[in-house]
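Journal club prep — side note

Before the paper discussion, L.F. wants everyone to see what a predicted structure for a comparable chain looks like in token form. Sequence:
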Amino acid sequence: MNSFKKLALAMVAAMTLGTMVATPASANTMSVVASTWNAAKTGGAGYDTPATAGTALTTAIVRPVPADNTVDNTDVVQIVATVVAGTSVTATSTNATIVSALHSTAAPVGATSGSSSLTVATGTGTTATFYVYTKTTAIGTIVITNGPVTLTYYVQGTAGLINNLTVSAPASGAAGTKQDISVTATDVFGNKVSAKSITATIFAATATVDTATVTTGATLSDFGVAKFTATLPATGTRSLIMFAPTTSTDANAADVVGLTARTLAPFAEISVRDLVSELSAEKAAKDAAIAAKAVADAAVLKAASDAVAAKAASDAALAAEKSASATALAAEKAASAAALAAEKAASAKALADAKTASDAVVLAKDATIAKLTADNAAALKSIKDAFNALAKKWNAKNPKAKVTYLK
């Protein structure tokens, strides 16, 4: 896949460079020269023009990264575009940076200077100059544009000296076993550094390594990585191994101001595990856990039994309470019924007694009325009889003034 991508990019670049269209004399025209610094140039140090370098992906112009944090003539590709006077030229980059001038004491230019795009207006002149540097070993592009005319160059950085070593090691391992340790070498910008020797130093005989000195790889699978194999001791608690560049000149001698600080002596610390002791401890812990579980299970069973007994007692107490309540309610109901019956009987007797007394009063009254009636009749009869007797005598003496008898 990577080869296909590179081929495709190369084809695009070739098409870009090989498809210049003829234009009228009044249109923009541009010629570009890309060159690099040559201190041994005949007639004095200066920029040399590579033959065909930079015009294809496979012939990228190679420059060192600015590991000293100053962008000077040895770090850059100088690009000079010659164009029609009064026009503008634009340079646009990927994986690279463009500056308009190089470092000087009066005007510092460092690894954070520049941008990915720069436009130069030629004014009355006919040339525009750009300086391109890169901080990565990945291939980058510089596209130079003047009106409709576009040219592309390819650049690539070479890693600087080792600035950082990072260690990847297992946190622990069984006593007496082999453990793989990887040490990655990078420059101040994080680019991996290949073909450099790294040496392992064992502290206090806490381990052994198969090879004390290993060179960082240069293939896709191990680029910039040194792989060590350490054998852990049969006894002890840890292994301590330090790694450092074998040759001091392969690494930065001091921190570079403004860039990442050095880490050139990292440690791998691996805890040594005694599997027999760990197994014994695990077994003891398991046995203790089983015993504790048995105690806990017994406690749970007892608690369950106690809960059943407590529920039975509660149910019995509730039943007794219900029975007592029912008995009391029945007694209360019976007493209430008896009281009601007694009250009804007393009421009935009182009513009967009242009726008897009333009847007796009525009979006595009737008897009194009958007697009074009889007495009145007898008295009236006696009066009538007396009147009639007197009337008879009167009528006998006074035949002409007779009175009527009372009937």
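L.F.'s comment for the group: The mean pLDDT is 89. Keep this in mind when we get to the figures.
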